[in-house]
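Run log // design_07
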């Protein structure tokens, strides 16, 4: 359970959940690459969540049955996502999104586009 956040005041990863969940999560950073892994998350479903501040995130590679979601609107001008077998995403993004599938993996793409808000004026107590 990975929650991507784009809040300027957040600058570190936060892990919340059961003791077992927290002990199994491994976060590795090498340069500008961040890896979230565990030997097995299957027995930890709904036991915790990992909050990752992304700032101007550019690339995501998703493996296994991972499902990263966004807490708020991500402000990346271009986000490139590589999807692997069994993975899904649920993101709010203000920018362009490019999704690629790994070899032997097909995906469906359902996008919802924000509609421009319109003004609604309601007048009460009008005398005719």
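design_07 sequence
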């Amino acid at each position: 359970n990975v929650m991507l956040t784009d809040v300027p005041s957040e600058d570190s990863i936060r892990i919340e959940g059961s003791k077992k969940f927290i002990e199994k999560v491994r976060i590795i950073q090498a340069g500008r690459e961040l890896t979230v892994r565990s030997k097995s998350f299957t027995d930890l479903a709904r036991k915790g969540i990992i909050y990752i501040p992304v700032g101007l995130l550019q690339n995501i590679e998703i493996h296994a049955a991972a499902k990263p979601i966004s807490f708020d609107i991500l402000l990346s001008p271009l986000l490139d996502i590589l999807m692997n077998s069994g993975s899904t995403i649920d993101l709010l993004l203000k920018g362009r999104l490019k999704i690629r599938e790994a070899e032997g993996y097909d995906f469906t793409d359902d996008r919802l586009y924000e509609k421009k808000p319109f003004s609604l004026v309601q007048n009460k107590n009008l005398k005719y």
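The chain has one helix and nine strands.
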